[in-house]
Amino acid sequence: MRSLFIYAYAIIQILGSTFDLKKVRRLPKDISIDERNERTFQTPSRVSRNVIEKAGVNVHVTGQEKVPAGPVLFVGNHQGLFDILVLLGYLGKPLGFIAKHEIKKLPIIPKWMELIHCVFIDRTDRRGAIQVINKGIENLEQGQSMVIFPEGTRSKGQALHPFKSGSLRLGTKAKVPIVPIAIEGTYKIMEQNNGRIKAAEVYVQICDPIYPDQYENIKNTVLAEEIQAAVDTALKNM
Questions:
Q1: Average of per-residue pLDDT across 89-110
Q2: Can you say whether residue 227 is alpha, beta or left, with left for phi > 0 and alpha for psi between -120 and 50 degrees?
């Protein structure tokens, strides 16, 4: 019953965001990109925090002072579906994601995702995947931070799957700082419980950023290994 209540609460929160959606779409065209991103991001961030708090989840974030100003590429491990809500609600910076194409079938949510500059990928369409990467690069170049999960799928536990290097092109092509982030505990909210939502403690560690002058002469495969090592070390120290 508790899980059904939280699912219902999340739906109500999403439906209730339609008024804000209309307001965001009417924002003046002459405001700065930073202001537009901040004002657009307020509702997704608030809704995410509301759902997390209603689920009885406590989120602990450390290292926020390490996040550089301007657009960055966050690179994190992916334990569960709640990773996205945690980052939207608590990372403290407007950001978009690379998301599965199937999400477009949902009501309201895809509209918000488009406004915060998420890009949708169909993993069966190789040519389309290249276009998605290019769109992500464009977002970063225009000042929008992005998040990628280079494991490619949820680990649904503490195991860390190999980081794939392809999606790192978003950061290296846009020449923005790359910030590793370690997420621990989100799988305990739902994946560990066969879809039932339970309270949990979640920890997010923001690691030292890697700047363009540090990675410009490194192959993406090596960079992926270095980022994974940083995330792995952070997870072991939690």
A1: 88
A2: alpha
Q: Assess whether pLDDT exceeds 80 at residue 191.
A: yes
User: Rounded to 5 degrees, what are φ and ψ at 121?
Assistant: -120, 135
Mean pLDDT (the chain) is 92
140, 73 in Cβ contact below 8 A?
A: yes
CA distance 236 to 222: 21
Mean pLDDT of 153-178: 91
- CA gap 182, 234 in Å, rounded: 6
Confidence of residue 101 (pLDDT cuts 50, 70, 90): confident
- With a threshold of 0.90, does the pTM exceed it? yes
Q: Which two tokens stand for residue 42?
A: 């307020």
**CATH classification of the domain holding 129:** 3.40.1130
Q: Looking up tokens 């979640």, which residue turns up?
A: 202
191: helix, coil or strand?
helix
Split into its structural domains, the chain has a count of: 1
The percent of the chain in helix, strand and coil, each rounded to the nearest 5, is 50, 15, 35
Give the residue numbers spanning the domain of 24. 2-236
